[in-house]
Amino acid sequence: MIPKRVYKSRGELIENRVIIRDPEKNPYLEKRFYGSLSELGRELDLIESAHLMLRDLLEVFQVKEGREQNLTIDGFVRIGEERVDDFLSLLKVYNNLRERGYIVTSGFELGGDFRVYEKGSSPTKGHPKYTVRVLKEENALKLSDLSSFSRATSATKTKLLMAIVTRHDLIRYYELNYRKL
To answer: What's the pTM value of the predicted model, to 2 decimals?
Structure first.
């Protein structure tokens, strides 16, 4: 749920991230663990940025030939599709998890697409419950890949959650557990 008085942030697209130069104006982004702080400001990845744009919490511009150009959500999604493999599937799963009230962060460090924190938990309070891998229904999955995903999540003490995006844009979640015999 979005509080009634949330400041709409403005960020600049730079390569594969969006930089919000005045993050202190929108504490909601910090409270809900969007992006991370750097010396440049709050840095968001393209998935987080598209999610916030869809919720009308962020406007994004890019500088071309010395001039700022505002991006529409359609234009931003096209850029995301060019720069990130399976951008739309990742965005659908990210949106779905956020809408369910979960804190979702990058899962790159854990060998997945996203880290998902139990409701009521957060990156500052604890360990993620799930490492999420996003797949399209029509893509084949090798048993060796599945095994390596599962081992990686076991090593990081998270559960593997496979998010399968169907041809009809439904998302099916499967929790997998690794057991060493």
So the answer is: 0.89
